[in-house]
Specification:
There is one protein chain. Helix content is 11%, strand content 30%. It is mainly beta and 242 residues long. The strands form four sheets. A five-stranded mixed sheet has the order 1-2-3-18-7. Strands 4, 10, 11, 13 and 14 form a five-stranded mixed sheet that branches. A five-stranded antiparallel sheet has the order 5-12-9-15-6.
Length: 242
């Protein structure tokens, strides 16, 4: 399925794409039982291996509660490279300051064009995750600055145009840590978990240009940004635990 943007409008799906989307959604919801107000109270939560599904009272979209996980190098590795206070790929031989400096090899950041380095200040926002996006040509980098943690909602890379709901997780990043996501990792922008937090980001020029010139929030398939409206495409409302 391909999103086709016409004259800057919202990308359109043709009929065969809609059918393909329905099949993809069915496969991603396999094993997740949706409760309805007819058979169980809406307050009941059904636990799955990674997600909790709570029926909405109006029987429209299911509310999917994303699990919260304290991020570690091990549990986040299928989503990206955890950057903490340890030296990654140590062993770079630079002859100055021996015994006092532990050097690491280059971190394999990839993008099209020169890297764009900037910062963003993040405050609390609505816990509903409306948008998810991925980049096929960039290993985007986010590093928290200061003493506050931050969170990221992530999904493992998929070959198609929809994320796999079964592995969507909300990772709480320790203060001063960072993450370089793999190419194709589904993600929303970092979230505050309480107090405002500043993050340093490394992007590609095409991604920054596409996102900053879009005008109004919409689905995108341009400038190495593939962004979907989760509820519109998958019939669920993702809720972060933050």
């Amino acid at each position: 399925m391909t999103l086709n943007a016409v004259n800057g409008s919202t990308p359109k799906f043709d009929n065969k794409d809609v059918a393909a989307t329905d099949e993809a959604i069915d496969s991603r919801l396999d094993g997740i039982s949706t409760l309805t107000s007819e058979d169980k109270p809406s307050s009941i939560t059904q636990e799955t291996s990674s997600l909790s599904v709570v029926a909405s009272n109006d029987n429209l979209s299911s509310i999917v509660e994303v699990p919260l996980i304290e991020a570690t190098e091990e549990n986040i590795k299928e989503y990206g490279l955890f950057i903490g206070d340890n030296v990654l790929n140590e062993g770079l031989q630079i002859p100055f300051y021996k015994g006092s400096v532990q050097e690491g090899q280059n971190i394999a950041f990839e993008c099209t064009g020169n890297a764009v380095i900037r910062t963003a200040r993040i405050s609390l926002r609505d816990p509903s995750i409306k948008w998810l996006e991925k980049h096929e040509n960039m290993t985007q980098l986010f590093i928290g600055l200061g003493q506050e943690p931050f969170a990221m909602v992530l999904g493992k890379p998929t070959s198609g145009d929809l994320p796999d709901l079964s592995n969507i997780k909300c990772f709480k990043m320790p203060p001063g840590s960072g993450l370089m996501i793999h190419k194709g990792t589904w993600h929303d922008f970092p979230m505050s978990v309480g107090e405002p937090v500043t993050v340093l980001t490394a992007n590609s020029p095409e991604v920054v240009e596409a996102l900053s010139s879009v005008g109004e929030p919409r689905e995108m398939s341009e400038g190495d940004v593939f962004k979907i409206n989760v509820e519109k495409r998958m019939g669920v409302v993702l809720k972060s635990p933050i």
